Amino acid sequence: MTPADALKLARGQGLDLVEVSPTANPPVCRVINYGKFLYQLSKRQHEAKKHQKSIELKEVKFRPQTSDNDFNVKRNHILAFLKEGDKVKATIMFKGRQMAHRELGWNMMQRLITDVGEVGLVESRPKQEGPNLTAVLAPKKTGGKSSSTRAHAGGASSARASSGAGSARPSGAPAAPPAEGAGTTRVSPKTAAVTESSGG
Q: 134 and 63 in one domain?
């Protein structure tokens, strides 16, 4: 089908002629409602952003002499952070003569790692950084996350069909995905293959 025939077909249905595969030989086009396509594309992108969650790194600090009650409170905070999907940097701070008894801090860190083991795992092993003993805990993955399909915008352009007017293709228009069950017609290199879909 020639471009002129394709435009005539689109114009007759009150739809648009959109180039979806400009690199094909010959190029492939679709007859669709381009405004509706852009709306659906924007809606899918908005839904994808809603399900994205930024992971924050929280920090909870201890002392080697932290009491059991304070330890339990801080541990519960770490558990809450991990359940929300955030990472936690646990820091045990030594001061002065406490550096001579660093094993107290290491024992406390091991106790903490054991207590949160049901919901978290060690991403960065405990290490001494100057006067501080640190470890990074990450939430356990409970299952595979469903991957959201991203609509790709790229090199496709559209030709708006209007009575008595030629086609004008918006620059940078996103490519329309091929419709299910839609056929394509290949013609000579000087013509464009067209896929006809129902209006709507």
A: yes
Burial class (CB in 10 A: 0-12, 13-18, 19+), 21: buried
Considering the domain architecture, whether residues 69 and 115 belong to the same structural domain is answered as yes
* Whether the bond into 26 is cis, omega within 30 of 0: yes
pLDDT tens per residue across span 66-83: 999 999 999 999 999 999
- Strands 87-93 and 120-129: what pairing? unpaired
* Residue 46: predicted pLDDT: 84
Q: Domain range spanning residue 112?
A: 57-139
Residues 183-191, mean pLDDT to the nearest whole number:
44
CA-CA distances (angstroms) from residue 61 to 18, 22, 172?
59, 58, 51
Residues ≥6 apart with Cβ < 8 Å to 3: 17, 167, 191, 192
Looking at residue 99, which CATH number applies to its domain? 3.30.110.10
Please give the C-alpha separations between residue 14 and each of 33, 100, 131, in angstroms, as whole numbers. 8, 83, 73
Percentage with pLDDT > 90 across the chain: 34
Quote the tokens at residue 191.
């013509």
The residue behind tokens 């924050």 is 56
DSSP category for residue 173: P
Please tell me whether the overall predicted TM-score, pTM, comes out greater than 0.90 for this model: no
Identify the DSSP state of 24: S
